[in-house]
């Protein structure tokens, strides 16, 4: 059961064995033990996304992401790198920029639908390596579990829908075959955001599904969360080396 308490100074979500407390004046959000909310008149709170709708969304999100990733891998093996030119990479950059904008707009729109406002929209380097635009949604910690999953996963799901439609247009001969390279590369890149590491949307969604929350201090996290964080740093090194190799190999093979 998830419960909520709110007054002029604080908003508190009680979920499982933890309290999530937001100071309404400073906007600071912290986690605390249940004892911190002892004797407060909590009331039961319901998710904005109903259980039937969430069940359908969960199944569709998995299906779309798996389909999009499979199409990207299949398409990558169909691309003749020797036929690529500069304009192919220019189109890829333009397409990726549009997809990223749509991804973040999805987070923003659904978060507002939940009655919350993002703290910040910006750009950062995850682990000092991975460039990423982001919508900071600290208030997501105050959402019911199922609503949090929708908020964190909607960007990926939106990208996956576009990818599946794009491949469908290719197969229907509505687009030139040059687009296969563009759609495939972005689908594969998007798949990395689904992997539950590197503070990705996949990581945040996984925490929701296994009913875990990430603490600010590493030692305060569960064994599962700590393992994921450690793997993330190793994956950051491997992924960076792999991407550099892939880019160099593609540019070498392409006639540009």
Question: How is the secondary structure organized here?
Answer:
Elements: E1 2-6, E2 10-15, E3 18-23, E4 29-33, E5 43-44, H1 51-78, H2 86-113, E6 120-126, E7 130-136, H3 145-171, H4 179-192, H5 201-209, H6 223-253
Antiparallel strand pairs: 1-2, 1-5, 2-3, 3-4, 6-7
Helix pairs in contact: 1-3, 1-4, 2-3, 2-4, 3-4, 3-5
Characterise the protein shown here.
The protein has 256 residues and is α+β, with helices and mostly antiparallel strands. It has two domains: 43 residues, no CATH class; 203 residues, no CATH class. Helix content is 54%, strand content 15%. The strands form two sheets. It has a five-stranded antiparallel β-sheet with strand order 4-3-2-1-5, with no helix packed on it. It has a two-stranded antiparallel ribbon with strand order 6-7. The protein starts with a strand and ends with a helix.
């Amino acid at each position: 059961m998830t419960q909520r308490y709110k007054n002029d100074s604080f908003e508190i979500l009680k979920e499982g064995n933890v309290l999530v407390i937001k100071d309404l004046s400073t906007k600071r959000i912290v986690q605390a033990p249940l004892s911190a909310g002892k004797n407060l008149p909590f009331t039961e709170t319901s998710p904005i996304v109903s259980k039937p709708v969430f069940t359908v969304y969960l199944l569709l999100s998995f299906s779309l992401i798996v389909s999009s990733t499979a199409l990207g891998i299949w398409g990558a093996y169909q691309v003749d790198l020797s036929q690529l030119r500069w304009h192919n990479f220019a189109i890829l950059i333009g397409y990726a920029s549009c997809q990223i904008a749509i991804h973040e707009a999805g987070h923003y729109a659904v978060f507002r639908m939940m009655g919350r406002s993002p703290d910040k929209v910006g750009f950062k380097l995850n682990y000092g390596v991975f460039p990423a635009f982001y919508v900071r949604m600290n208030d997501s910690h105050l959402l019911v579990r199922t609503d949090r999953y929708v908020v964190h996963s909607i960007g990926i799901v939106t990208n996956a829908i576009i990818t599946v439609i794009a491949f469908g247009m290719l197969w229907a001969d509505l687009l030139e075959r040059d687009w296969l390279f563009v759609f495939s590369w972005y689908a594969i890149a998007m798949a990395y955001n689904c992997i539950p590491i590197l503070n990705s949307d996949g990581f945040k969604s996984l925490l929701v599904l296994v009913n875990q929350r990430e603490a600010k201090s590493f030692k305060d996290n569960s064994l599962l969360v700590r393992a994921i964080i450690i793997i993330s740093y190793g994956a950051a090194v491997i992924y960076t080396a792999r991407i550099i190799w892939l880019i160099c190999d593609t540019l070498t093979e392409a006639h540009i």
